[in-house]
Amino acid sequence: MKLTSLKSNVIIEPFRIRSVEPIRFTTIRERQKLLGNASWNPFLLKAADVLIDLLTDSGTGAMSSRQWSAMIESDESYAGSSSYYRFETAVRDITGFKHVIPTHQGRAAENILFSLLVRKGDVIPNNTHFDTTRAHVEHNGGLPRDLLIKEGLEPLTIHPFKGNMDTEQLEQTIRETGRDRIPVIMLTVTNNSGGGQPVSMANVREVSRIARKHGIPFFIDACRFAENSWFIRIREEGYQDKKPIDIARELFSYADGCTMSAKKDGMSNIGGFLALNDDALARECRSLSILTEGFPTYGGMAGYDMEAVAAGLYEALDEGYLRYRIRSTAYLGEKLVDAGISIIQPTGGHAVYIDARQMLPHIPPLQYPAWSLTNALYLTGGVRAVEIGSVMFGLQPDGTEKPAPMELVRLAIPRRVYTQSHIDYLAEVVIHTYGQRKKLGGYRIVSEPTVLRHFSARLEPITAGAV
Predict the structure, then answer these.
(1) 465 falls in which pLDDT band (50, 70, 90)?
(2) Are 166 and 153 in contact (CB under 8 A)?
(3) φ and ψ at 458, to 5 degrees?
(4) pLDDT of residue 175
(5) Considering just the CA atoms, what is the radius of gyration of the chain in Å?
(6) Span 176-190, mean pLDDT?
(7) Residue 197, SS3?
(8) Which of 358, 364, 376, 404 is nearest to 194 (CA)?
(9) Which of 414, 106, 114 is nearest to 271 (CA)?
């Protein structure tokens, strides 16, 4: 008898679980009190009071047995540790960049790079700046310019690479601004603020060509480079038979450097790096790293952190893991779409983004519909998500406020943490909340900092008793 192999439609996690962490169930009455005590800001909730935590996928993943074993072998020497050289070798192998400067996380790499390159009045083009990137540009007096293709601002439009930069707008920006006022061009892969959408290799190549034509350094925000490489493999012609690591190497080859939060596709709980080819700029970056991060061979990271990242960068490029990661995110998106919920389509790599503006048209943008929906998800089922809307992006450098281009709620899925039953429960919470959407009301900000206000702002419902 000749047997055939099963072709299953079940999403099976490509790992076994050997250590578990209990999670706490609460009642809606308890959650109402907890969220009120947190000034209606999910960032201020205690993690122990959250059932399913989708605030971010940054540093919240589970590490592998290979990573843990590498950590035990770490070298904690202050200077020149063997852990650093293993870390450097891994980063160089994948990115091809000559200089590797470790940092405690991605925003530290941004701080070093932009502190040296950006001056008041400079313009920094990007497909879409994320919150810390934008904040560091503005902190140094620069003007972040988002040049996303128009399809990237249309949640329901199907396009394989909605994270692409509009290269015609890039050329126009260079002409109007002048090359001397553009110290660097950035490209974020995948495009987090734009729905976790990928960037095509053709777009990376074209941005690189334009940058080199004008003599402008080109850097990649590489937080989710592995997920982007997988999307290129499955969506872009000519890459179907290529390994993710080879796609990643080609992607980096078009750039002059990158910033990286290893808390994403480094599969680590902490860490990051700045990598680049320019010798003179690298010397300046190392000097600033000593001042702000630490000696250049540890840069704010312990030896065991560097070991975890060195192993994790390769694990993030594993085909089995990437197939599971992208498919499981799409599975959640499909369940929400089937229930009539508007999300950014097609689903991105690390998260599903709900279109709160479409779901809650009765809440004006500056009463923060996405924030309202985020709070409702916690009250309904103990799910913590994050707003990507006018609270995060509405405050301008001059203190004025304007609506964000989109009002999104991001359900960011930590790596290797939740099983399919968790995702099924999550879908039930979102769908149940959708059924009560007309009950939701707007919010006002009671107090806020001037930078990255969403992390610590205090809010209240505009209508007493509303959520």
Answers:
(1) low
(2) no
(3) -115, 130
(4) 96
(5) 22
(6) 96
(7) strand
(8) 404
(9) 106
28-57+319-461 and 65-315 agree in CATH topology:
no
Rounded distance between C-alpha atoms, residue 119 and residue 237, angstroms: 40
Strand-pair partners of 461: 443
Nearest alpha carbon to residue 152 among 86, 199, 202: 199
Whether a cis peptide bond, with omega within 30° of 0, leads into 42 is: no
Tens of pLDDT along 324-374? 999 999 999 999 999 999 999 999 999 999 999 999 999 999 999 999 999
- Is 28-57+319-461 assigned to CATH 3.40.50.880? no
Cα 4 to the center of its chain, rounded Å: 41
Sheet with 408-412: list strands edge to edge.
351-355, 408-412, 386-388
The two structure tokens encoding residue 40: 């209606």
Structure tokens at 233: 């493999």
DSSP code string of 43-100: GGS-GGG-SEE-S-SSS-SPPPHHHHHHHHT----SSS-HHHHHHHHHHHHHH--SEE
Q: Can you give the residue ranges of every domain in the chain?
A: 28-57+319-461, 65-315
User: What's the CATH code, domain 65-315?
Assistant: 3.40.640.10
